[in-house]
Amino acid sequence: MSTEKNTSSESISKIKSFRKNIPSAKELTEGILNGNKTALGRAITLVESTNITHLNRANEIIENCLTHTKNSIRVGITGVPGVGKSTFIETFGLHLTALGKKVAVLAVDPTSSISKGSILGDKTRMEELVKDPNAFIRPSPSGSSLGGVARKTRESIILCEAAGYDVILIETVGVGQSETAVHGMVDFFLLLKLAGAGDELQGIKRGIMEMADAIVINKADGDNLKRAKIAKTEFTRALHLYPPKENGWIPKVLTCSALENKGIQKIWELVDTYLEENKNRGGFQLKRREQNKYWLLQTVEDQLKQSFYQNKEVKVLLDRLLLEVMDSKISPFKAAEKLLALHQKELK
Amino acid sequence: MSTEKNTSSESISKIKSFRKNIPSAKELTEGILNGNKTALGRAITLVESTNITHLNRANEIIENCLTHTKNSIRVGITGVPGVGKSTFIETFGLHLTALGKKVAVLAVDPTSSISKGSILGDKTRMEELVKDPNAFIRPSPSGSSLGGVARKTRESIILCEAAGYDVILIETVGVGQSETAVHGMVDFFLLLKLAGAGDELQGIKRGIMEMADAIVINKADGDNLKRAKIAKTEFTRALHLYPPKENGWIPKVLTCSALENKGIQKIWELVDTYLEENKNRGGFQLKRREQNKYWLLQTVEDQLKQSFYQNKEVKVLLDRLLLEVMDSKISPFKAAEKLLALHQKELK
């Protein structure tokens, strides 16, 4: 018991000293703009905090940094667990730092708080990259809602860009709607796949194929090489079934072995080609502008819904009317009317 | 000029006498429950009206009819213009009335008011069915928003079912999100296609394939027969790429010639098999309950958004902040906060 007490008072003093040492928004902004990793990390901690005083400081830093973002590239990377995302990001990231680029790695993983599955959490999975002075790796923010996690990641991107990172890699696992969120914050979206037992397309989540700017078949090494080539053909054929993208880009399929560092260069060259084509045609800036618009409207609509669904009185009536509607005792439209009238009254 | 005057006063007296003769909600409900087509038609006119006094009466009729709906089947039919939807519905409808079923035909066409393209508007396209005493055909309601048109159609379904129609066919053109709306109000969703030049899958709208419970290749006659068979194979293969439906149904591909009345029976048999399997497994009622829930929540969320986007003060600020957000002068989240604060103030 005395140990507990000690620990507790120790913790308190630690927290107090930490609080004392939290630099101001201005100091953190300056640190970020000077490329200071510690300042960047602390600012992201503020962004991720649910403490309201932290939130205000975080907002100030973000607004300060917004006008300082440089010409960075945001690449989304998705794939089911086991596809080798960490190894891929390690190899890909090291390839980029060797080219003289500064690389930041972020993650969107709305499941991490539930499953404790640590996307990027286990930094030792990227042993080399984490030691690279030109790399910044940040584990997935915690949070139960995808909206919250996505928002935090999206704001962290702004900070990383202000800190001078040239390439921001955003990892996500193929769970829930997280790909859509990541797709909405990146310039290039990369789907990692494995060569399987021949029927590659079965079990691909709906909508993922449409989002991908490139499909990379990883672990194309050893015994897998032949199967990877077959998979490449099948995916190329399948991609052909989708209508072309608005910006005219036709998604490509590549193979690589992150473990043996093979095919990595080609992937970066592909991203580069994409960016060049897209910047020349104006699609790059257009997409970013559309993404900003999307996040504004999305946030507004999410909040409007939250204000409705989280109202206690509305909740009670909704539960009752849902049952009546499902049993066809009242029409859905009449029920909606009643609910909206109550919500209106509650707001006043 | 004097002619104009006459016409005008004639019209006025006509409208007046029509108004006088509008029966009460109770009378119309009784008429509907007795299977009276005129009463049904008049009630649907009330449903489609934007006049607020009509709306109240319409709501009363709908609530009255809700508990009287029988075991009808709702079938959605979609396909691009030229695929032969009208001929198909005529032949399919006559096949059903010959089986002793009462058939109602409704339409969701959010474009009709703009393009004047008359989905079901030209009733002469269904010459035989329109004369059939066991068929009721209603042209697409007018309206500029899909939400409005879909709502009207969905409420009209309730009335048709109360009037004893066994099969409700809901037609839509492959435009905008209308298929999603129709898919959300039917038990079975049928996609009409033509055999083309070989590359059948190109140009199919995203998401349509996933929604279809059956694909029917129409105009499989004469010179087209061989191509229709090839298309059937290709579609069957493509459907195989999608994950199975929640209810376990594997979508089927059939060919038919509505013009020569070939293959129509097989289509109805397929719908019948689907319904039997689905009712046994409980999927039928579950889907209907889920659809009711969907329409309730969808209506609530649409209205919440409308109240926001239609507020004049909010509109002005939104226009300004959208520009700032797109130019990265303010973060989307900060902008959303400002907008929601203003909206909140406006509501009070």
TrEMBL record, chains A, B:
<dbReference type="GO" id="GO:0016787">
    <property type="term" value="F:hydrolase activity"/>
</dbReference>
<dbReference type="InterPro" id="IPR027417">
    <property type="entry name" value="P-loop_NTPase"/>
</dbReference>
<protein>
    <submittedName>
        <fullName>Methylmalonyl Co-A mutase-associated GTPase MeaB</fullName>
        <ecNumber>3.6.5.-</ecNumber>
    </submittedName>
</protein>
<keyword id="KW-0378">Hydrolase</keyword>
<dbReference type="Pfam" id="PF03308">
    <property type="entry name" value="MeaB"/>
</dbReference>
<comment type="similarity">
    <text>Belongs to the SIMIBI class G3E GTPase family. ArgK/MeaB subfamily.</text>
</comment>
<dbReference type="InterPro" id="IPR005129">
    <property type="entry name" value="GTPase_ArgK"/>
</dbReference>
